[in-house]
Amino acid sequence: MNRVYNFSAGPSMLPLPVLEKAAAEMTNYNGSGMSVMEMSHRTPVYEAIIQEAEANLRKLMNIPDNYKVLFLQGGASTQFASVPLNLLKTGKADYVVSGMFSKKAYKEAQKYGDIKCIANSEDKNFAYIPKITKDMVRPDADYVHVCYNNTIFGTKYPEVPETGDVVLVADMSSCIISEPVDVTKFGVIYAGAQKNMGPSGLTVVIVREDLLGNQREDTPTMLNWKEMADNDSMYNTPPCYAIYVAGLVFKWVLELGGLEKMKEINEKKAAILYDFLDNSKLFKPVAEKDYRSLMNVTFVTGDADLDKKFCKAAEAEGFVNVKGHRSVGGMRASIYNAMPTEGVEKLVEFMKKFEAENN
Ligand SMILES: *Cc1c(COP(=O)(O)O)cnc(C)c1O
To answer: Are 16-255 and 258-358 the same fold in CATH?
Structure first.
């Protein structure tokens, strides 16, 4: 079997055992005589799939009972509108702009209220996470929005930002289930599935129950969290197959030992790459040390032509999708849960060889 090491930022690698299980069940799921893709969502066999997926995510993330888990569509980008539509009461919200996605979220929210950017790290092309303190937050803001892991720039929050009594909302698209988080510190966590949970088409929203029901009058039904919660994410047809695959991924992480174990693996894996970058004479890490992402590792040679040469040579060796986002340039290795440690070790070996030949 010719599997490559796929460093794509998303959609990205899925664990091989998950793909194999999905393949084995493709045409006849659990004796039903049909594929999960062919099933009505309103049947006991499918209901068991979505319920098990939710139960396993709750277990994995230790999600308290007073939080709802929603399985929605439209990607994380739809939540950029859903968040203000569902949460604005005073009409005020504060945003931290730490990268391209948080900037998009900030811009989208401006359509709906008095939206303030309280911190921004664009001065250094988002190579760090701005420090947030309680006194920066407007006390009458309905929430503070952050992007917890900046997929494009390769940075993440070193700790949960301090927002006092103001509800914290986090886009965790590229770091969800990569390590434990204390869900109780957040009012809302949302994430597109295609980075670390499963196929695209599914967006997970974890929302504290007391925050539901404050949506604007004109909120589209499909974006109304309360409506979706009241209907167990089945107001209409949910992204059935994507939920099934995400469910397999949750089970895979649980069987591996849960998020504590996942964190240990991810830290080790990222360290292999960062340690090499810190000592390399050719490659330089982009993100500032204190804010390094465990999931997206950005680096450059400092020479755009050499970067290009590297990406091409890497691809020929089976290390694919290492080209950085155009706003950063250089390279980005996305090493989500599904990337085996061996993939990172081999990439570093290849980088050493490339360095010896090109320095
Ligand atoms: C990929 C990504 C998004 C956009 O996700 P879509 O599902 O494509 O809308 C938003 N935020 C973060 C942090 C991302 O990594």
So the answer is: no
pLDDT digits (tens, 9 = 90+) for 24-68: 999 999 999 999 999 999 999 999 999 999 999 999 999 999 999
How close is the Cα of 200 to the center of ligand 1, in Å?
Answer: 10
Verify whether ligand 1 is closer than 6 Å to residue 147 (CB atom): yes
Q: Nearest CA to 75 among 215, 188, 180, 193? A: 193
CA of 248 to the centre of ligand 1 (A): 21
**What is the Å distance from ligand 1's center to 11 Cα?**
10
pLDDT digits (tens, 9 = 90+) for 242-251: 999 999 999 9
* Cβ-contact 53, 250 below 8 angstroms: yes
What is the CATH code for 258-358? Answer: 3.90.1150.10
Q: What is the rounded distance in angstroms from the CA atom of residue 280 to the CA atom of residue 192? A: 34
Q: Which residue ranges make up each domain of the chain? A: 16-255, 258-358
CATH architecture of 16-255: 3-Layer(aba) Sandwich (3.40)
